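worker-03 picked up job from queue 'complexes'. Input manifest follows; two sequence lines, order preserved.
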Amino acid sequence: MDFFFKPSSVAIVGASPVLTKAGGVIFQNFVHNKQHDLFTGELYPVNPTYESVFDFKCYPSVSSIGKPVDCIVVVVPANAVCSVLEDSVRGGVKGAVIITSGFSEIGNHDLEAKVLEIAKKGNMRIIGPNCLGVYDAWSGVDTLFLPENKILSTGREVVATPRPVRGPIVLISQSGALGAAALDYMAGRAMGVRALVSLGNRADVAEDELLRYFRNDEWTRVILLYIEGIRNGRAFLEAASSVSLVKPIVAIKVGRSSSGARAAASHTAAMSGQDEVYESAFELSGIVRARNLDEFFDMGRAFLYQPPAKGNRVAILTNAGGPGVMAADTLEESGLSVVELSGETKSKLERLKAEGKILPYASIRNPVDLSGTATSQMFETALRVLVDDDEIDAVLVITLHHTPAVLDDVVGKVIHACYDRRKPVIACDIGSTEMAEEIRSRFEKLRVPAYTTPERAARALYALVTYGKYLEHVKKHGLL
Amino acid sequence: MDFFFKPSSVAIVGASPVLTKAGGVIFQNFVHNKQHDLFTGELYPVNPTYESVFDFKCYPSVSSIGKPVDCIVVVVPANAVCSVLEDSVRGGVKGAVIITSGFSEIGNHDLEAKVLEIAKKGNMRIIGPNCLGVYDAWSGVDTLFLPENKILSTGREVVATPRPVRGPIVLISQSGALGAAALDYMAGRAMGVRALVSLGNRADVAEDELLRYFRNDEWTRVILLYIEGIRNGRAFLEAASSVSLVKPIVAIKVGRSSSGARAAASHTAAMSGQDEVYESAFELSGIVRARNLDEFFDMGRAFLYQPPAKGNRVAILTNAGGPGVMAADTLEESGLSVVELSGETKSKLERLKAEGKILPYASIRNPVDLSGTATSQMFETALRVLVDDDEIDAVLVITLHHTPAVLDDVVGKVIHACYDRRKPVIACDIGSTEMAEEIRSRFEKLRVPAYTTPERAARALYALVTYGKYLEHVKKHGLL
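worker-03 finished. Artifact:
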């Protein structure tokens, strides 16, 4: 499917110089990316109304271009889509991203069937219809008709739908709006994106093929899936199982409630089905399920920076009692084990107390509570002991910066203690001041994901443990 | 208990000119607030070591001040606390905030009992020990030994523990660290604070008395409670029930898991007890329970701006299918009802379609999905119909700003449609770009709470419905 993601030539059918039209925004995206050497393929506007669009010669049809076209982006009204496809098939086009809506999502099943028939006969693949299509941060393919900037009523121009920087995250989404919102969410958290694919009605290409494609894609490291309903369960299960072996998948599945299912049906013509079926499908294929949108991205970030855990035994290291309790609650409720520390580890911590390297009134049960007067150095000293313990599989570190003796050097200290281990460490600092933001962002630059609440950190760790468990299981028992 | 929150005179016992010491930070807080006319009482440093601190005459003991002292803040070592109290009782002090730790939280029950005995005999009340004490944004009482600013390793000075602006939120917390973190969280979200009370070991003053105090406090509108364990269940239940009649309470209860309970015990000597007991106590007394820290503040904000709901029937209005489904799922999972719209409301929406006032392919089931090409005006038009429907108790509006025709004017349009109704409306826009932040903050300025994900908006609405249900129940059946 390289013709969707790395096309050597693209035609925008319905391209327009009018920037309030979808065909205007999309064509401009490609022009902009071509000017900045991000998109390096050939680019052709197609629209019988115009002689040229943004100084590009405009063609009345795809077949009239007279040169090979890898992929077309279709932004014409629904009733004109079939003739566009027929013409494109004649021109040897390999893929069509059909943005246009008005198909099965509003009951127009016949039209969608006809579209699919033309494509099948012509050996052409389809993404969509009724979708946002593809945003590929690496190749410059950008079929999103959502303008990057908007002008506020105050006259100020602001970013509305950002195009995040290149990175390793793929998002495959049935909902286009959710896809755009995700770009907005990820751009603000400096999460780099490999690609967004908005699938819409999935007349042809569905999750399974995309999963396989990104499995073998060198730039992809984590795959996020937004699902309303899967049509071909077997194909999905096989693809997901195969991908999970090499790359983690995080899924959010909606349409669990009756009204949610009703809405999903009219949204992308998806049948939500029984939630338990999805639950076990995810478990069987190593997909980690997020319960909500925050978790979805939180878990994605955890996988970006940290290895899967070898087991479910977690230690909590904190300078704040309450937040330590919160983390313990959430970890246990998620099936992880906040273990009693081993005798050896306890003795080591006792020795640190005796040597004055941690405070005498620190609690050395798990959570290990260094107390509100702990210094940054004490975090390093205690964390070394915890990551050295073979009976601990992961550590959740809560470094509240409010206490007098914790400065921003706590980040470096924590990293020192754990950077050369293949044992996951996750951080938490609460607050929205500059200092809180600074600490979390420094942690992430050094590849320790840092969360805004203990519960969110705990759930991110749950993802690393769940995925690790799957890998262990497959190693022992084989696939499925 | 005005002597804690509006004292006409305060002595800081253990005051110091050294700003790295707790007695230094706390005394400086009061000096700063006095200089800015925020704290208007008399202020006395007490410390036998100094003649003066920051140009204030320093006294060797409380009794040597020779003038009435309402309240003392105790920052001396644990073994010196009793003599300080004995001396203060002689001087007629009414309240003591004991910051010092080293009491029952480390097994030193005898010392704590002795402290309490002295206070009882002397008719003095105690907050603490082992606490942060009181931050009162209205009177300038600030016993937090956490410095407001810190200097980063880059040399830049940043806010570390902010003192949020005056507002209507009270936070009563067993965990001091959580209290500080909460100030940090709330300051960043422009949530104004009435007071933070960190209770520590609760040798004397506990939640019940504080609840009653803030019930009758004119500035308080919402009370947030962080709980590890309640000692006097009956007193708590009675106080909470009485407060809930006039002001909403949101609680987060931790120590639910075995390791969490273990940690809570060593943190503030709290017995967590069985979670089901708390669950039903909360239900009986009208307390809304938050499941995690994000919800805790999200729900607080909902109560600040919106009335309780009269019932559990919710309509969702959206321009984004997927997020609409997410909201529906979470609402239903929380026991709310995403109802089928009435025949009359459906006809009204059909008429709007016919008149071209909303789009012909909008979905007018619930969620009402205006579609990705909807304009800001369409939100107003459709929302009017929904708030007019007596069979709908609340509306969740999702205004994703990414779609081409939605600009920041959508905020004004939504407000127009609902500002004069006593029916809760909650908003959601996803993303972290400037535009997303701008839209959410404008909503909140106009008193519609706006959330970053559909699930968080749904849970905030759950709080309004749950509290509304309690009020209805009490109206019908009386208290408890």
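worker-03 released lock.
Chain B touches chain A through 94 residues (CB under 8 Å).
Chain B has a mean pLDDT of 94.
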